[in-house]
Each structure stands twice: as structure tokens, then as C-alpha cells.
Design a protein that fits this description.
The complex is a heterodimer.
Chain A (H helix, E strand, L loop, with lengths): L8 H10 L4 H19 L2 E4 L1 H16 L11 E5 L26 H8 L3 E6 L33 H8 L5 E6 L5 H7 L2 E4 L19 E6 L2 H11 L29 E5 L9 H16 L3 E5 L4 H19 L18 H12 L2 H13 L6 H24 L2 E5 L14 H5 L6 H6 L3 E8 L5 E8 L4 H14 L20
Parallel strand pairs in A: 2-3, 2-4, 7-8, 7-9
Antiparallel strand pairs in A: 1-3, 4-6, 5-6, 5-10, 9-11, 10-11
Chain B lengths: L3 E12 L38 H13 L3 E2 L2 E2 L2 E4 L9 E4 L6 E9 L4 E13 L3 E4 L9 E4 L6 E7 L6 H18 L11 E11 L9 E6 L2 H20 L7 E6 L4 E7 L9 E2 L6 E2 L2 H10 L4 H12 L3 H7 L3 H12 L4 H15 L5 H5 L5 H12 L5 H14 L3 H7 L8 H14 L1 H8 L5 H12 L6 H11 L4
Parallel strand pairs in B: 12-13
Antiparallel strand pairs in B: 1-10, 1-11, 2-6, 3-16, 4-5, 4-15, 6-7, 7-10, 8-9, 11-12, 13-14
Chain lengths: 496, 482
């Protein structure tokens, strides 16, 4: 029994307000659960217990005084270790940033703190968000709470596992080509990637700047709405965060989806996909129809080129963004270098893992003189075509519904071939290229008991409709309330 | 030898005089203690993002308009990649394919008449930091980085290869400097690096249409350096071509101590900058209304002001040129003129006396001038009304400069008022005539120059306070007629 740690943020808020629980009690229970379970799940890179208790005590006082900040006051949460936290080490899952302590908070972290949320710690991830399993973490691999021999998805695998394992009701991850939605699908939780420009990226360590977005993991649509409403909105520190008003997402959740037009893209049901996934998604579509939605087939002819374009654009931007890790200013500096160039190469050779090196090389190549037009230029054209597919579809429908991934959580080490790993992202990458919002919600389970993700895709800045549809679905299904059966205290304690 | 024609194009970097940096709110100041004007953005910390300084864009537009460029409504920033420890991100945010402005011109005049030099582009970018080595670079045990300058806004102005001589290059640079200084967008200080210049130079046989192989020269931090470096390079390339050598496309550094250019890197080792559009910044959309609003606020430019100084004040080209090198000096001149000074006299005093005292002719130096323009005008009025002589006025000027007092105060305090009393002067003249009988004889014998000597003697006897015109008249009256 997980007690307060198993409650959602909105349930906790209600308990705080009616005086049947305090932030300190909830935070204490979450920290105890982390201590008991994380040696098996291995989701946290850093636990900030002392800081959490201090913030919880302050929230206690606000509730006692009858002046809480808002719905997230005193709510425990944790963030992917890609988000800068002032005074708390931030590694981005990489050895090259080991020991880096940012002097500033990411805008989203600052907004959560301002809302009274309590940070429990920093979460594991694939190094620099490059991967779909956390196996590329520079430190260790996070386990899927539903089957510890399997991956939780990635790159925000720590953030999805924590919510699935009831260690915190809310976490923040980032999504560049699927890094929120895919781990949400694999871990059986809600994961929302907002529209590009909806949430400030200031303080999010960049992987691919034109694609990266920060978004919430939660157990239900209502919590995701609360978290998004807190972090969204323009920011003077990020010129790509667009000044579009932030609606009250929670206020419209209950309006239902009667007569909502749902598009089902044919290209998202491919031959090679897991039949159990297809079955679950088809069943979910039927459920949505019962709720009043009207479905119709749509065609997204450029879907198959999305992945290739993504694997040109994202590495190109990454090769540029990661150039700053050179041993000069912060993080790792290799010793024994003969000269400057030697220091650069030794530091980067020692600090970066194989997947990061692979993408830096790929990206450097596609931006090189003589190759730019053939690769980067061409990929940008494909990106435009992919975006037009969505534009055309949204002329007819309000939402698209599709599987999040072609399969379910795989076993650690199963996808040693990078291309096999990349194929995980075929249904999430096009949405990222188009900059659109997408959410993955629990949509069923396989016979073996592994979660299946249902992906909803919306118009730019129309997260409200996404969340409303997700909420309607969750009001008639119980996939999102199921929890993995984790045994506490049986595994070895891993010192950290 | 001289059957080669010289082709030069200049790339000028001007540090913009904005209060804050190009992409963050840090102060853009010179000379602060190391790393005290930095933040996560200009230190290239993980997760930090740039935000465009609107004022820097405005300064760029002002310059582009002054150079007759077309402003690209849609322009964007790009990343330029190379590794160096003074560059925090290991890429510089610059502009590449879509610069702020293009297709302008600058008129220079080296004597034979005005010539139009094409401006290829004007774009914005950020400056890098500074390395401080422990000892000489080659033997340094450690090097430190100061990021105070990192992120300071730079404007790059690229000329077309239209310059044909080192003189023209120097004239171009001088004219351009005057424009940016007049606009107030750059302080124009070359020694401190606020204005930097790189040159591309090639030679081709006279009459040939294709350009020869070009060489880039860096590190020329004065007008003189630019001229010397280009002259050296012409000699070096001419010698090479005359002996049948091939010119290597390369970057060379000007070494002012040895007065030579030294090879820095050749084309084979040239950087591949891997430019691509900066994804952290949306493209700039420069609204035409904003451009027009800025155009309406442009101050009178040096060229127009020079012409006006010649026509309205009757100054020579030389005087007008010197007075319009900076806005401060030109403003000073005009203020003194409006204070009642005769333009020609004011020009003389500003260019000779004032510039002798001032530490320089730039705006910063002029701003330190302890003599307000009105006080200079008042001094000149004292000469005009005969209160003091021009000679005494020079002494008074020096005292004004040292003390900041007015001319009137100094003249009355020190009793410098000109003696114009005929009685008093008459006796001094009589005394001089009796003391210099021989000279008087010479005068009578027809040696007119003797008069000057006698005037000088009277002036000396009155400690320079005598009115020279009156002395002259009295002497002529009293001298025996020949």
C-alpha cells in the first residue's frame, strides 16, 4: 500500500485543503517509497530529500495559514536531469557534465517552485536525451516498474518510471522525437508533449533546439492539465516560447467529446507492428466513438520519411549544441592532454557515450560544406511536407488518434542495433517535426501485462482538446489506475 | 612591376555602443574585472538561450541606412562553428545567408575626386571573450578566459572588392569610422578594438577581368597599420608574381613590430564553419514602418555636414574634413559659432589650440573639454573688440583650459587688458624711438621692415598688452618721413 504516494496531485491537493494530510506527510511517504523501491527501479540520479523536507514544511505553514499558492502547492514532484536546478547537480545523463552544478533554475523549475511544488530529485535519462530506453545513460539503466527486466522507454525513462512506481505523482520530462510519449506508453502513464513554443526551454539542456519541448508525466489527464497550466506560457528568456494565452486546462476537462472529429491516420498502422498494440488502439478508438466522437480515416503520405528527416535534423542541431562540452568551462576535463586540441578530444572521448558520439558525427557530417543541401536542406523540405500532412488532416478533423509506439516495452539489451532502436519513434517523430502537441495515455495491456500507449495528436496550441479527450477516455476506462506489483525492500541497496 | 592592379575589400567589425550585450542583459562595458559582466547566457552554460537585443538591431539598421543599404525585412541569425576557448559555446551566433542589410555604398575621396565603394552587406553577431596567458603564449603554463567581452554586439560591414590602393582602403576606413561615430553606434576606438578591420587583397594584371588569388590580412588596429600592411602585401605579392610564384590563398597576420605579414593558415586548413540557421531565435521580421521611423531619426551624416560646413561657414575642405571626423568636435564648432564666434576664427582655434590641448579628437576626448564652446566664443569676442591681442589670447586660452575659468575672469584678474590709451602708449613709443636711433635711420633710408622691429619693441615694453594697430599708427606718425 503506497498511501499518500499513490494519490494524484489533485487528490493530494484536496487532502491538504481538507486537512487530512500535509505536504510533509506526502513528501515523507514519497521519500520513503523512493528509498524502498528505487534500488530496484533506479530512476533517480539525485534525491534531494533535505531540500524537499524544507520546502514541504514551508507548504505546511501556508496551508495552516489558509494561504496556499494553488493546486500544486506542497505536491511532490521530480524532474528529468536535463533541467537545470540551481545548486543541485545536473548531469543530463552524461559523464561529461558530472559535477556540474547550475547557478540557475530552468524556467519550468522556477515556475513549479513558485507554485509551491516540492522537488524530490533529478531523474535518469538517456545521455543528452538520445535514446529510447535509458540504456544510453552515462550512469545506469532504469528498469520498467511493470517488468524490471525491461526498459521503461526513453529518453525520459526515469520520469515515466517514477510516476508508474508511485514514487511521485508528477514529473517533468522532455520530448524531442518521442522522449515523453514513448516512455509514457512503455510505463503505463500519461505523458504530454506540448506544442513547440508552448513551454519555455530556458534551462533545458539542449539536444535539438527546434524540436525539444518540456512536458509532464502524470497518472491522469487532470494532473497533466495542472502541471501544464503551471509551466506553460511566454518567457522573456526564450524567444521561441510563443506569447499565446494559457487556458485553464482543468476547467474544460469535463466537457466531453461529443461530436469531436477524430482522424485515424492509415500510415500509423503498419505491417510490422505488434498485433496486441493494434488491437488495443482499435478498441480505444471504438471507446472514443461510444463517447460521441466521430472518426474518419485520414492519410499522412509523408509519414514514412519523417524518421529519416528527423535523424538528419536532430543530430545536426545536437552536434552544434554539444560543441560547448569541451573541458574548458565546466564538467569533465580529461587530464594529460598535450595541447588544446588534445584536451578537447580526450575530454569528449572520455565524457560522451557511443550514441552521443554517433549523433555528433552524423550531425557534423550533414552540416559540412558540400553536404548541407543534400542532407540538412533536404531534411528541412521533408519537414515542411510532414507538417503539411498534418495541416491537411486538421482541416477535416479536430484530433488524430494513433498508437504511440509500434510495440511495447522491450527487454534490456534487446535493441542493440541503433536503427532498431530508432524505429521505436516512427509514430512520435512526425508530430515532433510538425511541432504539434501529442499525448500518450494508457490504452490497454498485453497478455503479458505490459502497458500499451494510445497517442492523441492535436492542433498547435490546442492542448486543451487533447486533455479533454484523454480525460473523457479515462472517465470510462481504468487502464490508468492500474499499478505494477512492486515488492519493496527485496533488492540490494545501491549506494548513491 | 606596376603592371598589376591591386584589388582590396575590407571587412570591418564595429563594437556597438549598446548598454547591454547582443543576447543577454549583461553590461557591455570595457575594462571591468574579469568575468564580472557575465551570466549563464554569455558564458554558454548548458540550457541557456539567446534573446536578441533590439537596440543592437536598431544600431545596425541606422548604419545600414547611412550606407544606403536595403534592409532585409526577413533576416535571420545563424551559427558559425569553430572551437576556441574564448568562445563559450564553440559557435558564434552571427548572420550568414540572410543578413540584416545588403547592397549599399560609401563615397570616399583620396584627392582625384569622389569614388563610390560598394557595400556588400551589414550583419550582426556576438563578440568572443579574451584569453589571458600566464607568460608568453608558447611557454604559458596556464591560460585564463575572461568572458566579459563575450556576447558584446558586433556589426560587420563588408565592402565589395572595389578598393584599388592602400590609400583608398585607409580613406574608406576613415569615412566609415566617421559615420558610425556620428551615428553614435560605435565609439570608433581602434586601439581598444571597438573598430577592427580585416582586408582581402589580391593582384591581377592590369586589364584582366578575373580576380587573382586573394589573401586575407588580420590584426590591423590603426589606419596606419591598414596602409602599411597593404603596402607590404602588395610588395610581397608583386615580387612573388614577378618571379612566377603562385599566390597561396591564406590568412596572414600583420606584425606591426616587424612590419611584415605572417602566414596564419592556408586554405587547406580553412575552417568549415558548418553554418546553419540558429534554431534558438525566430527569424527577425524588420517592419518597414520601424525602418522609416529610424530613418526619420538619423542625424546629419559626416558627408552632409562637411558640405554644409564649407558652404554655410566658408571653411576650406581641409578644415571641414578635420572638424567632421567626430560628432563631438563638429558639435563643439557649431556651438561656438552659435555663441557668436566668427566661423573661420572658431575653426582655427578649435583645430589649432583646442586639439593641441585635448587628448584626442574623438567624442570621448571632446567631452572632457573644460572650455565650454560659449567661453571660446567669448574669448574670440575679446580679440575682436580689442580688449586683448591675439597673442595674449593664446595665453588666456591655455589658462582657460587649465582652470576652466572664463576669458573675462582671467583677463581682469591678471590685468591683461590691452593698452589703447594714446598718451600712455605715446610715451612708450617715444622711449623706443630714442633707444633705437640706428633702426629709425634704417627706416628713413627705406628699410620698411624696420617698422616691424619697432612694433615688437613697443609690445615688449608693454608686456604685450599694447594694441598692435594703435602702436603701428603712432609709430608711423612719429617716425621721421623719408
Amino acid at each position: 500500500m503506497a498511501g499518500l504516494a499513490s494519490l494524484t496531485a489533485h487528490e493530494l491537493g484536496a487532502r491538504y485543503r481538507d486537512g487530512t494530510a500535509t505536504p510533509t506527510q506526502a513528501v515523507t511517504e514519497c521519500l520513503a517509497r523512493i528509498e524502498a523501491l528505487d534500488p530496484q527501479v533506479r530512476a533517480f540520479l539525485t534525491v534531494t530529500g533535505e531540500d524537499a523536507r524544507r520546502r514541504a514544511a514551508l507548504a505546511d505553514a501556508r496551508f495552516r495559514a489558509g494561504t496556499p499558492y494553488g493546486p500544486l502547492d506542497g505536491v511532490p514532484m521530480a524532474v528529468k536531469d536535463l533541467l537545470c536546478t540551481r545548486g543541485i547537480r545536473t548531469t543530463c545523463g552524461s559523464k561529461i557534465l558530472e559535477g556540474f552544478v547550475p547557478p540557475y533554475d530552468a524556467t519550468v523549475v522556477a515556475r513549479l517552485f513558485a507554485a509551491g511544488a516540492v522537488l524530490l530529485g533529478k531523474l535518469n535519462m538517456d545521455e543528452f536525451a538520445m535514446g529510447s530506453s535509458t540504456e544510453n545513460s552515462g550512469f545506469f539503466t532504469t528498469c520498467n516498474p511493470w517488468d524490471l527486466a525491461r526498459v521503461p522507454g526513453g529518453s525520459s525513462g526515469g520520469a515515466s518510471a517514477v510516476v508508474a512506481a508511485d514514487m511521485a505523482p508528477l514529473t517533468l520530462g522532455t520530448d524531442t522525437g518521442g522522449s515523453i510519449r514513448q516512455p509514457a506508453a512503455f510505463s503505463g502513464v500519461v505523458g504530454l508533449k506540448p506544442t513547440y513554443g508552448r513551454v519555455s526551454r530556458y534551462g533545458a539542456i539542449a539536444f535539438a533546439s527546434s524540436l525539444d519541448q518540456i512536458g509532464p508525466f502524470a497518472r491522469d489527464a487532470e494532473d497533466a492539465a495542472l502541471m501544464l497550466g503551471t509551466i506553460a506560457g511566454a518567457d522573456p528568456m526564450d524567444s521561441t516560447a510563443i506569447d499565446v494565452p494559457v487556458p485553464d486546462y482543468r476547467a474544460t476537462l469535463g466537457q466531453g467529446i461529443d461530436r469531436l472529429r477524430l482522424g485515424v491516420p492509415a500510415e500509423y498502422f503498419t505491417d510490422g507492428m505488434d498485433p496486441e498494440v493494434e488491437q488495443a488502439v482499435r478498441a480505444a478508438i471504438a471507446t472514443l466513438e461510444k463517447l460521441g466522437a466521430r472518426t474518419e480515416p485520414v492519410s499522412m503520405p509523408h509519414t514514412e520519411y519523417g524518421l529519416a528527416a528527423y535523424y538528419v535534423i536532430a543530430p545536426a542541431e545536437a552536434s552544434s549544441n554539444l560543441a560547448r562540452y569541451d573541458g574548458v568551462k565546466y564538467g569533465l576535463r580529461a587530464t594529460g592532454a598535450r595541447d588544446l586540441i588534445d584536451m578537447y578530444s580526450k575530454t569528449r572521448a572520455a565524457g560522451f557515450g557511443n550514441e552521443v558520439k554517433r549523433r555528433v558525427m552524423l550531425g557534423t557530417y550533414v552540416l559540412s560544406a558540400g553536404y548541407y543541401d543534400a542532407y540538412y536542406g533536404q531534411a528541412q523540405k521533408v519537414r515542411t511536407l510532414v507538417r503539411r500532412d498534418f495541416d491537411r488532416a486538421f482541416e477535416k478533423v479536430d484530433l488524430l488518434v494513433a498508437p504511440t509506439t509500434p510495440g511495447v516495452a522491450f527487454k534490456m539489451g534487446e535493441k542493440a542495433d541503433p536503427l532498431q532502436m530508432y524505429l521505436n519513434d516512427i509514430f512520435t517523430v512526425p508530430v515532433s517535426l510538425a511541432g504539434l502537441p501529442g499525448v500518450s495515455i494508457p490504452g490497454g495491456f498485453t497478455q503479458a501485462g505490459l502497458p500499451i500507449g494510445l497517442q492523441l495528436i492535436g492542433r498547435a496550441f490546442d492542448e486543451a482538446t487533447l486533455l479533454r479527450a484523454a480525460h473523457a477516455y479515462q472517465s470510462v476506462t481504468d487502464w490508468h489506475t492500474r499499478r505494477p506489483a512492486l515488492q519493496t525492500g527485496t533488492a540490494d541497496r545501491t549506494p548513491r | 612591376m606596376s603592371e598589376h592592379e591591386t584589388i582590396v575589400g575590407l571587412e570591418v567589425h564595429a563594437q556597438l555602443a549598446t548598454r547591454t550585450k547582443m543576447f543577454c542583459g549583461c553590461g557591455a562595458v570595457f575594462g571591468a574585472p574579469p568575468n564580472t559582466r557575465t551570466c549563464p547566457v554569455c558564458q554558454g552554460m548548458p540550457g541557456s538561450l539567446p534573446v536578441i537585443n533590439r537596440r543592437a538591431v536598431e544600431f545596425g539598421i541606422m548604419t545600414a541606412l547611412a550606407l544606403g543599404c536595403g534592409i532585409n525585412q526577413h533576416n535571420r541569425f545563424a551559427r558559425k562553428h569553430y572551437y576556441y576557448p574564448d568562445m563559450p559555446k564553440n559557435y558564434q551566433i552571427s548572420q550568414y545567408e540572410e543578413p540584416l542589410a545588403e547592397h549599399g555604398r560609401l563615397v570616399i575621396d583620396t584627392g582625384p575626386g569622389p569614388r563610390e565603394i560598394g557595400i556588400q552587406r551589414v550583419h550582426l553577431e556576438e563578440d568572443v571573450g579574451k584569453l589571458v596567458h600566464e607568460g608568453a603564449l608558447e611557454t604559458a603554463q596556464s591560460s585564463s578566459v575572461d568572458f566579459n567581452r563575450a556576447g558584446v554586439p558586433l556589426m560587420e560591414i563588408v565592402s565589395k572588392p572595389d578598393l584599388r590602393s592602400p590609400d583608398e582602403a585607409a580613406a574608406y576606413l576613415k569615412t566609415l569610422r566617421a559615420i558610425v561615430v556620428f551615428l553614435g553606434v560605435c565609439d570608433g576606438n581602434m586601439e581598444e578594438g571597438s573598430l577592427r578591420c580585416d582586408a582581402n587583397i589580391s593582384l591581377r594584371p592590369r586589364g584582366q577581368a578575373e580576380y587573382g588569388t586573394k589573401v586575407e590580412i588580420k590584426n590591423m588596429n590603426s589606419f596606419r597599420n591598414v596602409r602599411d600592411a597593404l603596402e607590404y602585401e602588395i610588395r610581397r605579392q608583386t615580387r612573388a608574381l614577378d618571379t612566377g610564384e603562385r599566390i597561396v590563398q591564406e590568412t596572414r597576420l600583420w606584425d606591426p613590430d616587424r612590419a611584415v605579414t605572417v602566414s596564419m593558415r592556408s586554405k587547406e586548413f580553412a575552417h568549415d564553419y558548418r553554418y546553419f540557421p540558429e534554431p534558438d531565435l525566430p527569424p527577425l521580421d524588420v517592419q518597414p514602418a520601424w525602418v522609416e521611423e529610424i530613418r526619420g531619426r538619423l542625424p546629419e551624416l559626416p558627408d552632409a555636414r562637411r558640405t554644409r560646413f564649407r558652404q554655410a561657414y566658408g571653411l576650406s575642405s581641409y578644415e571641414a574634413d578635420l572638424l567632421t571626423q567626430g560628432r563631438g568636435l563638429a558639435d563643439y564648432f557649431e556651438a561656438a559659432t552659435q555663441g557668436g564666434g566668427k566661423p573661420k576664427a572658431v575653426a582655427n582655434w578649435v583645430l589649432n589650440e583646442l586639439l593641441r590641448e585635448l587628448p584626442g579628437d574623438d567624442d570621448r576626448a571632446v567631452a572632457t573639454c573644460p572650455i565650454p564652446p560659449a567661453n571660446l566664443a567669448a574669448l574670440l569676442a575679446l580679440i575682436d573688440d580689442g580688449t586683448i591681442s591675439g597673442k595674449i589670447a593664446k595665453d588666456v586660452f591655455e589658462k582657460m583650459y587649465r582652470t576652466g575659468d572664463t576669458a573675462q575672469a582671467i583677463v581682469s584678474r591678471e590685468g591683461l587688458t590691452q593698452v589703447a590709451d594714446e598718451g600712455a602708449l605715446g610715451s612708450a613709443v617715444d622711449r623706443v624711438l630714442t633707444e633705437h636711433v640706428k633702426v629709425v635711420e634704417d627706416f628713413r633710408a627705406g628699410k620698411k621692415a624696420a617698422l616691424g622691429f619697432l612694433v615688437g619693441q613697443v609690445m615688449k615694453a608693454t608686456q604685450g598688452k599694447a594694441n598692435p594697430a594703435l602702436v603701428n599708427r603712432l609709430l608711423i606718425e612719429k617716425l621721421p618721413k623719408g
